[in-house]
Amino acid sequence: MSKITKFIVGRLKGCGYAFTGAMLLLKTEPSIQVQAGIAVVMTFLGFYFNITSTEWMLQIFAIGLVMSIEGLNTTIEAVADFIHPDFHNKIGFIKDVAAGAVFIAAVTAVIIGLIIYIPYIF
Ligand SMILES: Nc1ncnc2c1ncn2[C@@H]1O[C@H](COP(=O)(O)OP(=O)(O)OP(=O)(O)O)[C@@H](O)[C@H]1O
């Protein structure tokens, strides 16, 4: 196999593993399932109010931001539980900070949603 073919096959395999990981998240993580449900509702609202292309981009970006950071939070929790299953203040700190990152992304997404939809509703 040539170097370039090897490179392409490696990247395609990487995409496959990443897709499997995304499916695992959706199947096993309640928080991501809730966020995916909200994403579906927001998509329906986007079509209902016929939002602009820029608003679609912001909405899709906000959804992607929250869900990807939630995925990282899940990863951090799993690593923390794996390396130290027992109670430890440092593990508590690590998990709280990771959850804080999701909170910041979620607040950002809510603000973006309000800026987009308030003018359509009122
Ligand atoms: N091993 C631990 N040591 C110290 N504090 C912990 C530990 N495990 C959990 N905590 C505390 O409990 C909180 C919740 O942790 P947990 O692992 O249950 O995450 P979660 O937010 O419920 O996530 P999920 O619902 O995705 O499992 C943490 O943010 C942390 O404050």
> Helix fraction?
over 70%
CATH topology-level name:
Helix Hairpins
Q: What ranges have pLDDT less than 50 throughout 5 or more consecutive residues?
A: none
Largest sheet: none
Tell me the radius of gyration: 18 Å
Task: Give the percentage of residues in beta strands.
Answer: under 5%
Which distinct ligands sit in these coordinates?
adenosine-5'-triphosphate
CATH architecture, please?
Orthogonal Bundle
By secondary-structure content and strand pairing, the structural class works out as: mainly alpha
Termini gap: 62 Å
Kindly report the oligomeric state of this protein. Answer: single chain
List keywords for this structure.
122 residues, mainly alpha, Helix Hairpins, 4 helices, binds adenosine-5'-triphosphate, UDPK, transmembrane helix, kinase, transferase
How would you characterize this protein structure?
The chain has 122 residues and is mainly α. It contains four helices and no strands. Helix 2 packs antiparallel against helix 3. The longest helix is centred in the C-terminal third of the chain and has 33 residues, at 89-121. The structure holds adenosine-5'-triphosphate (ATP). Its cofactor is Mg(2+). One of its GO terms (cellular component) is plasma membrane. A divalent metal cation binds at residues 29, 77.
